Each structure stands twice: as structure tokens, then as C-alpha cells.
Amino acid sequence: MIHRLMALAPAALAGFSVFAALPASAEDIKLPPTMAVTAYDTGTAGFNIAVGVGKMMKDKYGTDVRVLPAGNDVARLAPLRAKRAVSSAMGSGTYFAQEGVFEFGAKEWGPQALQLLLSSVDCNCGSLGVAADAGVKEIKDLKGKRVGFVVGSPALNQNSLAVLAFGGLTQNDVKVVEFASYGAMWKGLINNDTDAAFGTTITGPAKEAETSPRGLVWPPLPAKDKEGWARMRKVGSFFFPQLATCGAGISADKPVELGNYPYPIFVAYASQPADQIYAITKAMIVNYDAYKDSAPGAGGLAADRQTKNWVVPVHPGAVKALKEAGQWTAEQDAYNNALYKRQEVLAAAWADYGKSNPPADEKAFLDGWMKARAAALTKGNMPNGFE
Questions:
Q1: Of 31, 194, 233, 382, which has the highest C-beta tally within 10 A?
Q2: In the chain, how long is the greatest CA-to-CA distance?
Q3: At 197, phi and psi to the nearest 5?
Q4: Could you read off the pLDDT of 7-31 as tens digits, one per residue?
Q5: pTM
Q6: pLDDT digits over 175-224, tens only?
Q7: Beta carbons within 8 Å of 214's beta carbon, 6+ residues apart
Q8: What is the C-alpha to C-alpha distance for residues 328 and 29, in angstroms, rounded to an integer?
Q9: Rounded CA gap, 117 and 292, in Å?
């Protein structure tokens, strides 16, 4: 089952919807006077890119964009779900939220019908950064070392476990050190409270770590290590091999083979109006040149650089904007529609589970939900991804 999901992974877009005619020229794009967007902590790649996009919207449309930093995925999505934000710049937590797993398997959440606007894949990658003084050359050398986890952030923690799996390691092979936020975890690495932290190679905290007395290295994930990649994808189905050519201690002259997935991923809820998401996405596409150099990684938001057929669908409003940009195909349409269907199956399974008098105990509730989820996906002939 998991391998069928893997066939879907490296790829990210798809869906079709019919809209009323909407303005297509940059001058006719109508954005609200104010918008809020959530992102990772201040100074991270996701935050900096969101700020760059926000400045473009202020300069071009007079829209004031507030970027709200949040330390974990639950905190990032709460304002979006409450309609206090129009989008969130997420990471792989987008997938976990859609699937209703980990923290999103709690009764207050469940599967979230998140859909993409635009996402970035640039010269950077995402992996475990390791303090140079820890003496780690390969991922397997992390055995017995301290690895940072972030409370309430299944994305970051699962990403770390996926990278560890590349080296044949599990959580039991390392010493997990928990932190309150992504930023706190990286400060912990600098302060010698942990030896490894997951992040993108261009994140601000990684650059701080590189110039700190401890230094920073990125143990490689060679694409030719098929067994390592098979282990990694069983834990993180959304990763694909990529050569990192930018980031802390990395350059085109000194590249490192690592793994990646789109980040940041600008998402909205399926329920948000198609014309609203169309306008935001269209503004980002037609004004790309105005923000592409605003922060490392922003260049990956180009319409022609979008990951195709990933594990989360593209919002119908964004599909319209991508079609107008000539960056959409019939194949993507079919793939995206299948992902819309998956979200419907998950939502129905959650609703049915809620009516089944589930246990009040949190762990028992999650265990019961994961069984119900698996059964619904099997019935729908859809991959589980979390066997």
C-alpha cells in the first residue's frame, strides 16, 4: 500500500472547476485591503518568503499583509481554520493535516481539507542539520546522539524520523530532546542542548548554527542508495532526492545530495472562495519578478517550477490561475480530482467515526480513528500511507 503512495510523491498539482469569469490582467486583480498569513517562526525561510510576497502585495495592490509566526503546525492552521488568516505557509504538516494523523487525529481537528496555492522547490533541501563537533559524517552515525523534536509539530518530527530511517535508525536509536518551537530547537543546537535539528538548508537558524562555535554539517542522502531511500520514504512519503546547491555551508561549488519536498507550501481550505484564492495566486504568478529575490527560496514559487502531482491537491482557484499561466495539463486535472476525492473520503470517515461513540481517552480515540481511517481508504482503494 505504502509503495503506491510513493509513486505519487515527488510530483504536486491537479483539479478542475468552472468559475464565473474573473479578471485576468494584473491591474484587475482585486485583493482585500488587509490579509493575514501564518508561517514558521521569525527568521525561517517560510517566514521570510511570506514577508517578501506580502511586500509585493503592498507595493502592487496596497494590501497590508501581516505574517503571523507560529511554532508548530497546529498553531499555524488555527487562525486559518478560524478565518482570521487567508493562507498559511506550511511544510509537510500540510500532508499530515490532510490525512488527519498525529496531532491532527485529535478530536478537535481531524482531516483538514487543505489545498495548495503555490509552493516552492528551489536550490535548497530539507534534512537534519548536525553540529559539526558531533563527529557525524553519515546519518547512521547519529546513533546515540541527541535529536531535536518540536512539541506539537508532527511535520518536523516525522521529517526527522524519515531522515533517521535513511540511516537505518529509529527514534529508539537516538536521544530525543523536545523543544517548544522550531526556533528554540535550533537555538538548542547552537547551545549544545541537542546535536541535530531538521530544517531547510536556507533557514536563518541554520546559518546561525554554521557560524556558531559548534559549526554545522548536512550528512548526505545519496540518491544511489536505493535501500536508504526506500526506508526513508516509508516514513516520509513526500520526500524526493535532490542536490542542494544553496544554504548553510552549501554552494553550487560544494553541493550536497539531500532530500526535499515543496517548502513553503502556501495553502488554503477547500471551503475558501475560488475567486479569493484565484486573485491571491494570480497576484503571486504575474508579480513573480517583484519578490523572487526577496528571500532565499522565493525563486521556487515560479508557476513553471511547481511540483506536479504531489500528495495534496491544488485549490480550484489556484488551478484557474495556473491554467491561465499555461502551467496545467489534463493529466494534472485527473490526478488532482482523485486527491479531491481522497479528501472527501477522509472527511466522511471522520464524520462516521464521530457518530460511533468513540472513546474519550485521547490515545484510544486516536487508535480508533486510525483504524477507521485505514478501513475507509482501503474501501476506497486508496493508499493509507501510515501502515
A1: 194
A2: 60
A3: -145, 140
A4: 333 333 333 333 333 334 555 799 9
A5: 0.81
A6: 999 999 999 999 999 999 999 999 999 999 999 999 999 999 999 999 99
A7: 131, 132, 133, 189, 190, 192
A8: 20
A9: 16
d(CA 248, CA 204): 9
The sheet carrying 216-217 orders its strands as: 175-179, 146-150, 196-200, 126-131, 216-217
Residues 16, 336 contacting (CB under 8 angstroms): yes
Class level of CATH domain 2-120+263-379 = alpha beta
Nearest to 31 by CA among 282, 227, 310: 282
Strand ranges, E, within 227-347: 240-244, 256-260, 265-269
Residue 334 Cα distances to 17, 165, 179, 266, 355, angstroms: 12, 33, 41, 22, 32
Selection from 159, 216, 213 nearest residue 182 by Cα: 159
- For the chain, the domains span 2-120+263-379, 126-259
Instruction: Indicate the CATH number for domain 126-259.
Output: 3.40.190.10
Whole-angstrom distance, CA of residue 49 vs CA of residue 120? 10
2-120+263-379 matches 126-259 in fold:
yes
Positive or negative, the CA dihedral 302, 94, 200, 213 is: positive
Taking residue 330's Cβ as centre, other Cβ atoms within 10 Å add up to 9
